[in-house]
Records
---
Amino acid sequence: MIRPLYTLAVIGAQPLLRRKLRRRGAAEPGYLQHVDERFGRYEDGAEPGALWIHAVSLGETRAAAILIAQLRALQPGIRILLTHGTATGRAEGERLLRDGDRQAWLPWDTPKAVRAFLNHFRPSAGVLMETEVWPNLVAVCRQRGVPLALANARLSQKSLAQARQLAFLSRPAYSSLTAVWAQTEGDARRLTRAGATVQGVFGNLKFDATPDAQQLAQGRRWREGLHRPVVMFASSREGEEAEFFRLAQAMRGSDAQWLVVPRHPQRFAEVAALAASQGLSVSRRSAWGEAPARADVWIGDSLGEMALYYGLADVALLGGSFEKLGGQNLIEAAACGCPVVMGPHTFNFAEASRLAEEAGAALRVASMEEGMRSAVELAGNRERHTGAVRAGLAFAEAHQGAARRTAEAILELSTEPGR
């Protein structure tokens, strides 16, 4: 009885959702493309039997890229249907497509739209990346006999509390998944409490990412020519940058070069303007020629160049960890040999953050001011910095293997007799 009421609420909210798309589309035109797909309406035909992978946004799509590469290695010629919920995720996902692959928006969570989606694409199986569990999506897949797995699955304590408040919806959804493969033992325990049956703890796919060697080398060449420490604020979030820029202004005597790479690309211009409002000179990556221009603050306003930025930086502050936002993932920084300074709030990636700190690849601080000063100090101490770089590389290498384990489980799921 509860799910039909939920469905009515989703249907009733669709005018608001359309309005939200129009508003977001003003800044990101990708939201205005293929809108009918969100209602299960499609222009072109589709060949049945593709493996469907849902990666809602940019981070999940980058994890999906690692998984897709492993799937192609194990089963050349596999066809992928890639779905998303955000414009940045879809733009990143487009780069992963090969002949025979398809891409679409995930339909809004009504039985009618989900049925239309399944009727049109007829996937062999579905894989939801990390956290995207929707009541009607799971229920209709179960009704249709489409195996649906949650891969690279994570669930924070905060998200578990929210799921338990809505247990009448979330528990049936989690319990109806065909398979769940968790990142960590802690995630597995929380997912089990939410109602899921966890088949394995495979680790985090992002440990298997290989940083772009050319980008990394370019960033390091630029850094070597500077003769001053570069401190990066990686994947900064709204609510954090104002304090960062205020402190950067106060620390002008430190000789540090500040580099800010906002988490959300639609905020690039906003963050640059915020730095300028604090009296700081600004240079944006999109305006660089052969080398970065001199300025108080560099803004990394490009997509797909995180390896370049980590190569350019001596130390990275972890975005999302200085406000109660849960932190961003520090694995890519470690794999690039960039030591991390993180704030007190890393509940979204609690175990990875704890393990990185224990390994010496990351440093925990209590505030933004302490973080910025600690980052400058670490960058200037050659012995400590070299030790942290080595620790990060060893930490990243020690936790590899999730991609192969996950890909093998997916292929087994999608080829089970009767599927």
---
Amino acid sequence: MPADAVYLVAGIALLVAVVLPVAVDRVSVSVPMVLVLVGVLVGFLPMPEGTNLDPVDIRPTIEHVAELTVLIALMGVGLALDRPLSLRRLGTWRRWSATWRLLLIAMPLTIAGVYLVGAVALGVAPAAALLLGAALAPTDPVLASDVQVEGPTADSAPGEEDEPAGPDDPDDFDEGDEVRFALTSEAGLNDGLAFPFVYAAVFLASKGDPAQWALRWVAWELVGKVAIGVVAGVVVGWVLGRLAFQSRAQSLRMAENGEPLLALAAILSAYGAAELAGGYGFLAVFACAMTMRSLERGSVYHQHMHAIVERLERILVLLVLLMIGIQLTRGLLDHLDWRGVVLGLALIFVIRPLAAAIALRVGIGHHDECGDLDWRERGVVAFFGVRGVGSIYYLAYALGQASFPEQRWLWSTVAFTIVVSVVVHGVAARRSMAWIEQHRASISSAT
């Protein structure tokens, strides 16, 4: 295929990405499923001479593209969440009960489950098994859009003048869908909280005996970097939010003219500040978005920022999924063996659902509910641990930090798991959410 033809293929692919959300709206097919399939079809076409799509050779490029995609998705997730979370109102933390359980119980259990199945049962090297667990444990903020909240609500309709919102009030601003909120908030926070375990795998591969680095890992990677990332994000979000909504200089009050590019400035500023300070930039971006949202929760400006972030995310997702599809036809799964298949399927169908079910049930009485989730909703939340772009980033990052002899096997296993997740969760998402909504409707009509 001539190099110029790449532009034609890219243009057609982008057109497909624009049309797909409407085209598949009423069928049990997700946009990521179709994009991967389009990538597979493109992969069968001849490529320009010298094209190299080997993930080992182009690892830095993959890392940076996946990193940017996750960052943009995290800003979108942070802006989309309506439910307040405030240090001054401890009651708001209880409304996030399901989120904390998924983060602090389900994710470590998932990592441990993958590690034990891989290292103990299947004979995978301990460092590789731990890296696989850390990379695949987080619910992806990019590919889980079918089961996440759609976007921020506002007091004023688009085109109307923004009015300052009142103080955060869970009764005024709150998601009515507990399932979508739990999965969205989990995806926003767990991408940063998976990083300590990625570092643990890197240290295990490069330094060996955990006794030599475990204490430092707990103090710095597990606690210190998390705290720095959150603080950096809150500070950047507060400063930018004050400028946009409350600055004395009219030229700085970007909320008044609806300029949405502040969202991109916030992403880069929060991420850069956190990374320079030694913290986790992913957490900083999410915390920044949440903080900006909290300053004027009812402003329509959040919808403007969310809209541009969503469009950029769609373009990057198009690129990533097309590349995955193309690479599937060009050797990405060549190093997949039965161990990788078992681990991927076990994660999607057993380990994640079981870990999340335990997390959402432990400490709950027989007649109690966790975060207003009944048993049906807990089952849906437990099942939809979507794997995606975040897993690609963590794997690419770790392989750049330490030597893993199993790196090609890791690429094949992660790619297989993502594709299975895209298909399985893509087919089940609409039906599962419809089942939940029908149940809610039946309860409402009965009362």
---
Amino acid sequence: MRKPNSSALARWAGLVVTSVLICLSTNALAQQPTEPSATKPNIVIFVADDMGWGDSATYGNELIQTPNMDRLASEGVKFTQCYSACGVCSPSRSAILTGRTPYRNGVWRHLSGVHDAHLRASEITYPELLKEIGYETCHVGKWHLNSRQQFNNPDFPQPGDHGFDYWMITHNNASPSHENPDNFVRNGEPVGQLTGYSAQLVASEATRWLKEIHDPAKPFAMSVWVHEPHSPIATDSRFEALYDGHKNSKYMGNITQMDNALGMVMDALDAQGVSDNTLLFFTSDNGPVPGFGGVTGGLRGHKRSDHEGGIRVPGLARWPGHIPAGTTSDVPVVGTDVFATILDIVDIPLPKDRTIDGVSMLPAFAGQPVQRSVPLFWRTHVSSGDNRVAMRIGDWKIVGNDTLTEFQLYEIQKDWKEENDLATKLPEKTDEMKNILLQVWNDITTEGPNQWWESERQKPSRGATLSY
């Protein structure tokens, strides 16, 4: 491996410095509310599971009905270049809570089997920090931030140890499927079999917490992480019937089932009179699984890939009075940014004792650029060999293989389908990007628990590709 080129890092630093004044000015403007709020804003983060960038009417699908995503987009901003922090589930979710790229926070792989990796107690999550200033916190739905033998095991951190007052969760997928799941745990106690479909059960629990348990005198932060459309899929007949006769009706109905749950949460916010003082952010944890019906909207790759189809996902945000309604933003943002955004809007400083990779999305809410000291970076432990790592700076994206020895280069804004590899045509630009990528990776491995991934050599288990 070649030693990173210091001049490349200097040029990257120079780009950051030149944008500081613009971004600081933009950030200041973006933080000015149109109307003063009497209380701190509430936070709701809604995460779909394995939903592709092209799996909704909101993002151009001509068949799948997603009226609540459409409504959310009409009342806020739609990001056309929103990314998950990884091409698989557990890592991308860990980044949402911590603001740190997955290898840095330790959740470097999906946690479906038996592994040492988990979201460590030493990590700082935004619910922990919000609780310190009087917020109540709730997490409902999927968790997947510890491995199977660690789930609901008091010897390992659980949601309550990461800042959630109340939680009703599953380890990974709803079991045996989305219909009548039997593997939820509420505040450490198994719930038993429930009747209904997972997304609606999760949304109902969120609604119940908001209406019956939450103290209305306090601000709240709530995570709603549904299981749809992750396999094994089960779809309510009322949603599948919308696509009667289509060979993909079960999957398409499953997306609408997920969208219905989003609508239930939005309606609950309205019913409690808190919608106007709530930041609601909707996204997915990664791209779709090939062969199950999901689509990427023309993007290359899929779940487990660091091409766009594996990591570019839906991103919708609504915060009345702060986010212009019915707008579109092509500013690249990533799930890792959720942490810094929440801290920004409640005036909590970022932790100084660790690297925070994400940045505040407040400027991007208004379509303005954000300032990054760490480039957008992805490393996915399970993917085809030639796209296990990627980095984006501005319009340039470099994609590399597992051993960091072969690289592709794309001008992603123009070539969003990644059809034209420019690595051979632009060797100097490729070297510049490669050297920055190697330095970022070196920084991450210095800070993260590298013994966890070095012991496995980043190779997935045989037959594991459909288990997460």
---
Amino acid sequence: MPTKPLSNFKCTECGWTTLRWAGRCGECQSWGTVVSAAETTGLHGQVRAVNLEEGRIARPITEIETDAATHWATGITEFDRVLGGGLVPGVAILLSGEPGVGKSTLLLEVAARAAQEHLRVLYVSAEESVGQIKMRAERTGSLSPTLMLAAETDLATILGQIDAVMPHLVIVDSVQTVSSSTIEGSAGGPTQVRAVASALIRVAKERSLPVLLVGHVTKDGSIAGPRVLEHLVDVVCQFEGDRQTSLRFVRTLKNRFGPTDEVGCFEMTGEGIREVPDPSGLFLSRGSEAVSGTCVTVALEGRRALPVEVQALVVGTTAPNPRRVTNGVDSSRVSMLLAVLERRMKVRLSDKDVYVSTVGGVKLTEPAADLAIALAIASAASDLALPHNFVAFGEISLAGEVRPVTSSALRATEAKRLGFTNLVGPGETAIRAAFARAFNGARSGGPAGVESGGGRDRK
């Protein structure tokens, strides 16, 4: 008598198995990911080996010929930078981002640029009508006779549109709203998303047809749907930006045909989306006079060096627990720097409220901004302004050391290009030496432990 299988259902996210179906995985706590084990493996019976044809037998890797994947530019330089030079025939790209950040606007611009090169582009929207898309295209100047629009939510109909139009580029907005009638479950479910993505990617590979898919994100910022979706596609791009500002960034999280450390910069305007090839001045608020509590650092966004201004405000308080408010910087990193300043530099901050922010809404996550944050706080605490042409970058350790950071030469070159001639970086071995250079010539009343002399006016 044959024995029954030990598990009949399996989670598509983490592989957890169970004898009975459950709406929620007992291991990763994901909803709707527990399906039949036969469905996940495709094994509905005993699998037997098949006789392979001559051309399908595995060959030595040294005998396999490779065809170089040639990129063709989309016409949007910043987007081509992120993709590694442009689109590759048969590439599957997943573009994710929060609602309203501008994903559809960017891809409509990509479609319009391709259509202007006399390429047939099929733009499939499962969220908007063709009339709504045309209204946006008229506003952004993206009208072209070779840009074909379709509003479809059924996978079979979309595949039929591809057969009828025979496009050179396909855009599907979005993959979570398309469903297949042959698969159980509603649109956006793990099974549906996996089936829809697999079918579109298979068409892309068979016809050497670039396919761009729009993906939704969850409330924590991750791509909605099964994790296998990111494994199926060739390129995963993340479109991010703050709704309070017009600046947008496109980052690559995965790229099989190019680097994964490039960043494209865009600006949302009333006429659509605009490239920002040189965003160096977007994160600076430099006036004619130096102001206390400000310091400029050079951050790396991919391979691009961007100067960013860090602002700090230190205010005395009588509250038992002083406030520590941050915007654009890591709060735990700022707390560590406050402890280093108080212990190593004798800057008293335990009885003061400290506010630290960046200009332009940029987020500083790398430790290279430590020195600039510490100098901005010390400048605000002493009410002494740093020189107007001053820039600093370096990681600060708990021992008070200024550690080297990556691409120091690139940061210094960009700073000098923008006119910052007074640079303090990892060349200083200790934070005390860096502070001595920064506040050299400051009057008494500056940060304790820093050499003082004459010469700077108090702001």
